[in-house]
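call fold(seq) -> tokens
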Amino acid sequence: MDRGYRPGRDDTRWSKLARDLHQEAIQAALGAYDGELNRSAELNTHYAGRWHIWFVALSGSVEWLARPAGNGEPLLSAWSADELVAKIDEASR
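ret:
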């Protein structure tokens, strides 16, 4: 009788609960950075093909990073998206 068991996966009710809670924690963490995710997407659309832009969450703050397309140099870093945009514009001149 097949009860939905798949080898390599513990489908007990406690493991399912743990997976569900883990997914909720991930969603909550991503929700905390909605503004940054949206701004990052906006900047990547604006600078498409020229710069790659992302951010890193650091205990209580965010660091913004940018690198020219093709993994070129320089790697730029700033504490705000606006500051990073100014650095990109300066480096692009």
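Residues 35-92 form one domain.
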